[in-house]
Amino acid sequence: MDGKVIIVTGALGALGSVVVDEALARGARIASVDHAPTQAPATADLFELGGVDLTDAAVAKKAIDAAAAHFGKLDALINVAGGFAFETVADGDPKTWQRMYALNVMTALNASRAAIPHLTASGAGRIVNVGAMGALQAGAGMGAYAASKAGVHRLTEALAAELKGKITVNAVLPSIIDTAANRASMPKADFAKWVTPQELAEVILFLASDAASAVTGALLPVNGRV
């Protein structure tokens, strides 16, 4: 990935930060985009954009354009930004469904739409989204989250068809990711069976690489050892 310019959204989170570190280690130049504030100075290989609300299309376009302008091009967009909620349909708040749709679908949609012209100009553009295994068959309490991630899956497929021959568009579908937050919420689980952020980052960066030029429209499960 030497010399590739990659935007990672949700870059300060548990998964996004690992994706950024792994991509930098492989020689990529990274634009790190997150809703959380950042004041880190730009370096030759890392440009951080904090306080970015990707649910706002205009804000997303401004951030993507700034990142592409900073490095002079854009080769890949990795949409990690998103959110999670657990509540039953009967007892939950309808606003949760709107929030999950905004955080998971609209962030990916807005960033992707803004990135398309830059990725097309690259000649080897890549979009990688983060879906969810739990969206293939929703369990109790997973309605709002699963519905929104299913939207990410359909967005991936639609974009792959629309951009075929110009930009590849794929998604990873992780099971439970081994993060501190997930361990805290499920303390009795067998963490050894979960997929690690490092393992997931490996798959994401493969899909963002030249080696994955023949793969598009894929929804790739990453199950860990479940």
TrEMBL record:
InterPro entries: NAD(P)-bd_dom_sf, Sc_DH/Rdtase_CS, SDR_fam. One of its GO terms (molecular function) is 3-oxoacyl-[acyl-carrier-protein] reductase (NADPH) activity. GO terms for biological process: fatty acid elongation. Pfam families: adh_short. Its EC number is 1.1.1.100. Keywords: Oxidoreductase. The keyword Transferase does not apply. Belongs to the short-chain dehydrogenases/reductases (SDR) family. This is 3-oxoacyl-ACP reductase FabG. The gene is fabG.
